[in-house]
Amino acid sequence: MTIGPEWVVLDTNIWIFGLRHQPEQPACAQVLQHLPQLHVKVPRQVLLELQANLRHEEMREFFRLLHRNMGHTDLRWEQVELARIRTYQRRGCKLGDAAVAAHLEVLGIGTLVSENRDFLYEIMGLPFRVLRAVDFLRELGGVE
Amino acid sequence: MSLHLDELATQIATLDPAEQDALWEKVAALNFQRGLEALAQKYRTRLAAEGTLDQTADTVMAELKKLREEIAADDYRT
Known about the structure:
The structure holds two protein chains of two kinds. Chain A is α/β, with parallel strands linked by helices.
């Protein structure tokens, strides 16, 4: 039996803090530097949010980079069933977080890396674990 | 430059296939990291020009949360 790589999802805040080099969140930029060693899926909600933050030219450069990292990055543009999103809303997620959570469930993702306190501390019973960037980096110690 | 590249290629050709694969992976990773840094620099320059680069992490996070709700409401409106 072959066990494939473990795919993870980086929440929008990790991408944005990482690109901004946010001084209070240095671990986010470090996570992005590890992308060639990771397997990262980018769900629709995160893609749309990145599109809203980056200019057209910046987004094109972003896609070009991810394309170069092919095999390690998977862009998922498909929508998620509304019924599945509602399930997460009933558990206390806001609509946007529910869309992310539902997509992770569909994709079978085991780890979300996020600095979003709602994901980290407020919502119980998620089918994936949520790690802050600094904790994810600690785990990556063995990646290289 | 061409001579230098020839020498480099000759050296690389002496490596066994596994070492060559590892080398290409390292080159690809370095290229990716450089590209990412260039994109980050471009983004930061634009934010600085717009006067938003100095926003605190809490402010950025609050805007991201607001944006998340707006986008999801539009994407999944029934």
